[in-house]
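Supplementary material to the annual report.
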Amino acid sequence: MLSPKNAMYISVVLLMVLLPMVNAEAEVASLIAGKALAQQVYDRENGRDASVRGTMILIEKGRSPRERKLFSYRLDKKKGQVWSLMRFASPEDIAGVGLLTLDQPGDVTDQWLYLPELDKSRRIASDRKGGRFAGSDLYYEDMQDREPEMDWHDLKGKAEHQGNVCELMESVPVKADNSVYSKRVSCIHRHSLIPLWIEFYRSGRSQPSKRMSVNRFDKVQGYWTVLDSTMSDLESGHSTQMRIDKIVFDRNLPDSLFARQALEDQNVEKRFRP
Amino acid sequence: MNNLAWRYPVCLGAVLFGVVMSAPVAAEETATTAVEGKARLPLTPKTVRGFVSRLDAERAAVVLGDALTRQYRYRSGDESATLELRYVIQEEPERQGYLIEIGGVNVIEPAMLVSDSSQSQKVEEDAEAECELDDEVVALQFAEQLKAQGHQVAVERMRVYRTGQQVVLRQFVRKSDAVAALEQMRQMWLEQWRYQAPDMSVEDRADLERLADFSISRDRIQNAYVVLARVVVPDEKYRVRWWDTPSVAAPSLPETFSSAQSDEVFAEIAEESASGLRKRLRTRAELMVPKDHGSVNFGEYLQLQGSVNWQRQAGLEMQLAALMDGYGEQGGDFHVVQLRSGESFLRWRGDDTRLTVGWQNVIWGFLDETPLNDRLSRVDLRRAVLDDIQDRRVSVPMVRWEKFWGGLKLDGQFLPTFQSALLPGDRSMWSPYNVSTGELLGVPTHPAMQALVASGRIRDEDGGWGGMGLRLSHAGEGVDWALTAQRYRSSLPYYELNESVRQSLMATGNPWQTLAMTSGDVFTGRHPYSWAYGGDVATVFGGITLRAEAVYLSQVPVTTSDLRLDTRAAVDWGVGVEWYPGDAEARLVAQVIKHRLLDAGHVVDYAETTLLNGAFQDEYLNGRWRFRLRYAIGLDQRSYYWNPELTWLVYEPHQWYLAMHSFHGESGTLGGYYRNNDMVTFGWRARF
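Predicted assembly:
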């Protein structure tokens, strides 16, 4: 006579084995479809290069909103190799600070920070994932290029965001130590392949700790572009609004813009400001 | 082990009936966005074929080569539009068809079409159009035509997946037979492709592995298991985009900033760029309360820094800067207000060169706080080590030349005149020689010296040229490095006992008698010339930034056992790490700095010193508070300096801080010399 515990165990195993083929196949299908969708989102056309004039607004209850004005430039050298330069224009205590990131082939990234008060650039660790960028709600990982192969992707149905229907996709890191998040749930707009919102989960928590939502997106020069989004820390109530004031794609930005001279000399980078 | 990783192999194992491996089919772009007068319409192969079939029927009425305009009703899903297509038809007998050269597409209706299902978004007008074509030759020819019309054009190759119909392969009574047959057929299909197309691309092979869509279905009517197959084949499409946005101006011609933003801050930035004028103001104020100094009850400090930077012509830049320092020690009766030049210079900038002449503050070296290859800068010791390194340096007149080659930089400095370090007055609690105790900073206490320091006159030498240096540095993949060669004079004085005083002291052994016989200076601050050859390296390993420096110094001043000034060669080296514990906001810097005299012999100075220094910093409550701890610990000779600081950051750009400075250590060390200067400070800083 089987003990209740063993009976339960065998029942579960049999149930798993005898699952209707449609359900098992559907699950596998959703995993594969999820990966395909993630790849499509990653491969979404966003121009060979982009020049951005943007504003980052830090919003917190009981405190005046704090604005950071910045210029950023991106150059896609080839698949998996992205160069970027960011320059803060205000407020005054960070004005002139520059961040140069060269994403090299083979998952190697070099990063340098320029500090105007020392008038020199210094190499910094580029594989920081946690830590808030410029005091915002964006972690360093949120700003990094994350390839689809680094996560398992599963489709979870449909949802709606501001009248737009989107696909729910759950992404779990393949290796837990290469992300500060245990899970991300994204709402992907099929037409534009833009995640209209993303919920970020930390390990051991059933509720999301952060949420990114798109406030406005549109086509600019043929590329679907997020023009206004908000990252909210659901635990502290702090949020960061990221607004693109102007963006220009495909200007044939030169490699020299992503070199040391442009990082250390604002006047070299100024001529490319949109 | 995450949930999906658990489910995936279980699913595969549990699926005895086959696996659906349907690949995603890239949805052919059928939705349109359109604006009156311009259009963006992806012309699918079906659309183009539709045109061709119509043209076939109308061929008799068409004159080949003429530019034609024809309306075409387009429908896809719930969207529809009437389009006006302008094109030229060319016959291609070898292809048995026609080439349609498309000159443009206009949308007749609707006049405005939203870009997605939301009615609240309006598509902005832009000057771009695109279309998708199956044939590479057609796409390239179309692109050439657009370029000839003066448009900017881009042709992009895209991979698409075309799904075929599902077909029934075989039928089985038993499920196990169907499963076995499915796997066999799948392998045979893949092998067939590999055999027939050995030169298939790696990309296609990977696709085939993924797109082999074999499945098993239950046919309940015939009570059988059916093996089905659906082939999904990768294919290529070519998207041709054209637009009229001008490309960026040539680097030699600066762009005019002409945005009409309503944003005030960006308007200010724009105004600065347009006029070439940039104004900056920085302020600091501090109250100091010593713990138990004996003579100083409290102190105050105020600094105002202002600068105006002007660029009018391409390549030319001018900056004027000034600083005002006000410092006072109540009880010690020391007050001083100084006005001096900040970084004021004239700069010429070429494509990869900068030449700067004037007062500048340049700090070489990779290490924090104590960069070893920083030999030419001028030190400000008026507040000892209370401030960060950039506030402990003073600008000096120099000619600086910088040349860039990508990540490589050659940096040269020439200092035509020498200026010694800015020192506090001898009555200040921060003076490097203490007239009360007779101690000299950095020199172990000696009874004879005590009397001479306490009662003698001390002067600092000045004049001569300041030195020069050349530094080659590289910021590249994985590692940064630098090599430096300098001919320098340390701005910090090394106090030499005057020869007549020394002889008298050696003869009599009595410092008081010596002082009575001396009428001039007892000590003179010297700045001997020396060569410095050094190197730096920085890299990142496992999330930790490693920085290291080493420098050989040819002539470091020392005092021999018979109190003469002499020089020795020395080697300084240092290694530091920067780390973010827990990958959060906290930042930790730890450095070991070693100084060693080579062949020291019998000298009064410490022949070898080891210092552990660095900082810890963290932020709390969403950046409202910042805590920082700077520290310096002498390891060979016991010396401790701690500087914890808590800063309130709520009201930008103002910072309010409460800090403590604590000194402790052996005679002659930093901690030991300033042991009576423990204090609490309360301050404010702001930048405008």
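The longest strand of chain B covers residues 152-172.
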